[in-house]
Amino acid sequence: MNRWVLVFAFVGLLLPQSSAVNSRPVSAVPGAEGWLRVRTRNFTLIGNASEKDIRQAGSKLEQFRVAVTRLLTADAQRQNLPVTVIVFKGDSDFQPFKPLYQGKPADVSGYFQTSDDQAYIALAADGQQTDPYRIIFHEYSHLLTGDRRGRLPVWVSEGLAEYYSTFSARTAQQIRLGGPLPAHTQLLRRQPWLSLTTVFAVAEDSPYYTDGDKKRQFYAVSWALMHYLMTGKDGRYQDRLSDFLQLLRAGKATPDALRQVWQIDVATLEAEFRQFLRNNSFPVQEISFAEKIEFDERAEVAPLSEPETQAYLGDLLWRIHRTAEGEQLLQRAIAQNAKLPVAHFALGKLRLQRQQLPEAKEHFRQAAEADPQHYLARYFYAFTLQQQYVDEYQFIAEFPDEATQRMRAALDAARQLAPDFPDTYRLLAFINLVRQEQLPEAVTLMQQALRLAPERQDFVYTLAQVYLRQNQFGAARTVAERIIAYGEPARIVERAKWLLGSIADAERAHAASEALAKQKADAAALAAPGRRFTGEQVEGWLTRIDCTDNSVTLTVNSEMRTFKFHAAQRGDLIFVRYTIDVPVEITCGALLPARKVIVTYRSATQIPARSDGEPVGVEFLKAGSS
């Protein structure tokens, strides 16, 4: 999914996202000869602005990133989504690379675009329009405070993002946060305040998050409440804010978390908060750090070739739905330099989006070959190869051996390059699931993926599938119910509900199969030599059968001695054979050759002298068996 957020010259105006496509050709890259690339610890910055302006943009973003992550709880996860910043010299150069609104470039000073593999920040350095950094900081804070460790309520997520959007750095060790946001303060003075009960209940499908006027009202109150928690009561709330957020991430309801952390209820907090709003004072928070958070002056700076510049800009264009222009630049870049990983990866994503799988796979292969450190190229190569086996019902029946080897090799390389990228673990586990092999390893892989991204319900669903494949029905049911309790995304919840029915069906089928197998095993055990009849037994060689009109006497030589068994009624004696070596009919008299048998007998009160018992059954064995 692609997402971009625009920074507009008019404060508070938000344009809808547009999927319009501008097919006009991109005649040239603006000032291609003057483009630079600056690599820092967390960003790749490119631009035709001056090196000073590019460094300044990098410095602000690095400072913001360090400040926000330091203000988060100690266990904050490092975000590994690559972020590329494009700094245009002026708005005229920026114009051809803005998102379209009603067929024309939007009147924006900057924007933040995210997708599943890449984030772009684009802005103009000339400062002719509104400062772009507030909205950029807002959106980047979502990336930094994202749900890697659990889901935050919407009011917290948006309130934090608005609060952090006021960031400014005074020195290399001191930052400023807070202060009034005019659009919010004016709205709060004009309109009735939302109750905190309403604010706490807002979800992503709520009108207060989707409807323009209500959304602005919700944002204003969420910002103001987070401001109060960060600065009010002389720091009482801020001191334990991380504990509060940790409980919310774990799924605790906001009223319960308030009671547990600060021993207050919603009504008490609301009374305090309303007084804070009446005072209409939003103090600035100044924070000093022991260590400097300045921009790394040793950052790598290098000129950017025209094909490289075209590759970056083409990648940006297709991601903001200016697809024809973006594809044109990417193809032009590869025509000039056939080994550009940025261009190949971008075209791979574009072909994958269009389901042109062979072409996508080849582009990912070339991107990985051109850049040995490009873990995403390896991951998407394996993912595209997997997609080639999806049928018309969106199911995968099998992975052939050769394809499996290639996918696993690419994913193992991706995992070594980026061990904290969770999707690699999921795809490796999914391969095992489809092939029904190494299922314990698949569980371990999914557990690792969920440690890295606990909010990913598609991961939880895969884990439930693995448990089901292992016939661990209780574990599969528990995990599926966890998805339903989480409540989103809707498509995964629906799958989980369907999976619960499949688990029940599989459990019944498995129980019936187990019962039938036991029944067969019991029958087989009863039919085995020596298990068919009840009584005392002797194993040996049957040498004679002496018969009268009604009775029969058996002579059996065992290793110990010779036995005589007498049956008064011939019809009560049952003969069973386990080998075709024994004829169907046995005649009375001496048996030549003697036959190996097990005789089951019981003691009898009225038997001839020298008889050892009354035979019940005679089982003829294959010679050499026992």
Which of globular, elongated, flat, extended, rod-shaped describes the shape? elongated
Average of pLDDT: 86
What's the β-strand tally?
18
**Within the largest sheet, what's the order of strands?**
1-7-8-4-3-2-12
Number of helices: 23
Q: Which percent range fits the helix content?
A: 40-55%
- Which spans have pLDDT < 50 for at least 5 consecutive residues? 1-25, 74-78
Report the structural category. alpha+beta
Strand content: 15-25%
Summarize the structure.
This protein has 23 helices and 18 strands. With 626 residues, it is an alpha+beta fold.
Task: Present the secondary structure layout.
Layout: E1 3-8, E2 36-39, E3 44-47, H1 51-71, E4 83-88, H2 91-94, E5 100-101, E6 104-105, E7 108-114, E8 119-124, H3 133-144, H4 154-164, E9 168-169, E10 174-178, H5 182-190, H6 196-201, H7 207-210, H8 212-231, H9 236-239, H10 241-249, H11 254-262, H12 266-279, E11 284-288, E12 300-303, H13 306-319, H14 323-336, H15 341-353, H16 357-370, H17 375-387, H18 401-417, H19 422-435, H20 439-452, H21 457-469, H22 473-486, H23 490-527, E13 536-547, E14 552-557, E15 562-567, E16 574-577, E17 589-602, E18 614-620
Parallel strand pairs: 3-4, 4-8, 16-18
Antiparallel strand pairs: 1-7, 2-3, 2-12, 5-6, 7-8, 9-10, 10-11, 13-14, 13-17, 14-15, 17-18
